[in-house]
Design goal:
With 362 residues, the chain is an alpha/beta fold. The protein is 37% helix and 22% strand. Strand 5 (54-58), helix 2 (62-72) and strand 6 form a beta-alpha-beta unit. Helix 9 (272-283) crosses helix 10 (351-361).
């Protein structure tokens, strides 16, 4: 399956390309006090290991803006400054070496101040994200949240273009999935700028992952989106892993090993949950950046290395015939299969051991 991708203008955030057919990049945001350079750098390093490609930091005062130079010199991925209310923070963050600025039209409304930020970004040759969210946008009578966000974004775009600045990324995030999807679909038809996808304030990990997967996934299958961030009330590493899972589930990227398993039923005669957890633990089931294989151009749904754990012969090779290695469990034993073909029978106590041996062979 090939998804026709929306054509968007390519920009660069540090050394990462966004739009123009470039791979979908994964972003996150630190949860530390930006003024604490050591803690912030430590968290960014953890995000780098998890596969984060662009990281954003909150800039709430001048000390935080100044800290950007110290942070940037110690990390290897592009650094984005998140600015609200005070345009002077944006100016200092740019001077301190930020690779991109995010400003919010909902709380930065004076044209002279916005123009000053645009001129600075133009001078330092860095892009700006016009980052809308439903909580700060002004909703006019008769307009939906999506309408209000799109109108606000287009107004900012018009100002930027008047200043001959087009290194623009746009985001229109609501906590409501339908409003978010509607807003992105509308803006996608009205401009060719790169789009940063996400659901704002998505919630705690379980709820937030579901909302993000539904919203971001719907847009990705529309061919919309150039970079994503999953916003969770959690360790930011969890955000990166969730983003990887969304891209992998959509078939857009492969991040190494993928385990599929049946939901089990009354036919299952083994503890498949325990077996799966043991296998994951033995594999050190981490989705790290060096494993990433991102697709370019049109998004091709490809096949990562897949392992199947099936609870019985019904779900066995038949439903998992395309996997590299699979196990169809029975009572006290199971059938090892590859690409749908039975290989040999193995004892239940050897399930994990044999699967690991076969994985190592690959």
């Amino acid at each position: 399956m090939i998804i026709k991708r929306r054509k968007s203008r390519e920009i660069k955030v540090g050394n990462v390309k966004i739009g123009g057919g470039a791979p979908i990049s994964i972003q996150s945001m630190t949860k530390t006090d930006t003024r604490d350079v050591i803690k912030t750098v430590h968290q960014i390093k953890e995000l780098e290991k998890a596969g984060c490609q662009i990281v954003r930091v909150a800039v709430k005062d001048m000390d935080a803006a100044k800290a950007i130079s110290g942070i940037k010199s110690r990390i290897d991925i592009p650094l984005v400054a998140d600015i609200h209310f005070d345009y002077k923070l944006a100016l200092l963050a740019i001077q301190s070496g930020a690779d991109k600025i995010r400003i919010n039209p909902g709380n930065m409304t004076r044209h002279q101040e916005v123009e000053a930020v645009v001129h600075a970004a133009k001078s330092y040759r860095i892009p700006i994200r016009i980052g809308l969210n439903s909580g700060s946008v002004i909703k006019h009578a008769g307009k939906s949240v999506a309408d209000a966000m799109v109108s606000s974004a287009l107004s900012y775009i018009k100002l930027f273009e008047k200043l001959k600045f087009d290194d623009i990324i746009i985001s229109l995030k609501a906590s409501s999935v339908p409003e978010t999807v509607e807003a992105y679909r509308r803006i996608a038809k009205k401009c060719s700028y790169s789009l940063h996808l996400g659901i704002t304030a998505a919630g705690l990990p379980d709820d937030g992952r579901i909302k993000s997967a539904v919203g971001i996934g719907a847009l990705l299958f529309d061919g919309i989106g150039d970079t994503i961030r999953v916003s969770l009330t959690a360790d930011p590493v969890v955000e990166v892993l969730a983003a990887k899972q969304i891209l992998e589930a959509a078939g857009i990227a492969s991040f190494g090993l993928q385990i599929i398993s049946c939901p089990t039923c009354g036919r299952c005669q083994v503890d498949l949950v325990k077996i799966g957890e043991e296998l994951k633990e033995k594999l050190g089931y981490q989705r790290t950046s060096h494993q990433s294989q991102l697709m370019t151009g049109n998004w091709r749904i490809g096949a990562p290395i897949k392992i199947a754990l099936m609870g019985c012969e019904v779900n066995g090779p038949g439903e998992a015939k395309d996997v590299d290695i699979g196990l169809a469990a029975g009572k006290n034993s199971g059938m090892l299969f590859k690409k749908g073909k039975p290989i040999r029978k193995i004892a239940e106590k050897d399930f994990v051991k044999v699967l690991l041996e076969e994985i190592n062979k690959i």
